[in-house]
Amino acid sequence: MLMPRLTAEKKRELIKDIQQFFWDERSEEIGELAAEVCFDFIKDRFGPVFYNAAIRDAREVAEQRMQTLEEDLYALEKQL
Known about the structure:
Elements: H1 8-26, H2 32-76
């Protein structure tokens, strides 16, 4: 599975968020490298879980809309 490409700026922002999380939750100051390792772990391990859940949600919405479209098309049919 291909993960979306992040800009360098966005990746730095997320790494800073991880560092802030560790400080806020554990009063631990972690370096940029440790935060990047944590980021890569989360991305590689949990990213596919969230991605697949989003795909399932999108599939469900698409199926519901197709059902509605099919019903609307039947309603447009002319009686013979």
